[in-house]
Amino acid sequence: MKKFDNSYLNNKIKYIAGTDEAGRGPLAGPVVAAAVIFDNDIFIDGVNDSKQLSEKEREYLLPQILEKCITCSVSVISHIQIEKINILQASLLAMTTSIDRLKIKPDLVLVDGNKALNHSIDSIPIIKGDSKSFAIASASIIAKVARDRIMKRLGHYYPVYSWSKNKGYGTQEHIAAIKTFGPSPFHRPTFLRKILFEENSHRFELETGQ
Predict the structure, then answer these.
(1) What's the total number of domains in the chain?
(2) Which of 34, 115, 177, 207 has the smallest set of CB atoms within 10 Å of its CB?
(3) pTM for the complete prediction?
């Protein structure tokens, strides 16, 4: 993974940032992005796509990433903003903002996914970049841990949705809670249309016998 990143180094590119987001798919909560820059000789054993790691592994790796990176940043885009601009644009905005917040300006940005950033700094989209690039994988871990912690805190106020376990994703338990108790203020309405439509249709059938 480190060799992948270093393959982009040249006389004009000294600092390479990796950026990734967490939270495109959940039914509730924000999307969170992170960006990170390392020295070219830094590698941390075990860093990988955050989705391939357990929560315990991510929590173990995070302090090592924070200690060994040159600079890193996190950006949070709320569920309200997601509804206004859609999840794709919110994800791109989160990654762009995380790049802007880095204390050192990178010469190149490696972006997880198939979309380059609309930014003055050159960026290269890398499909499945979180399994290829050390910097992107590290950013994915930072973003995932940050978002999980947000959802755990929100879960204290809305325990019926079990966000401490599902982090807002559409598990059967989460969906059942939405159907029983309705959505919370932190749910994404456009993500619930199918669920609520099916529930309303079911109730109509029970009430009318049709």
Answers:
(1) 1
(2) 207
(3) 0.91
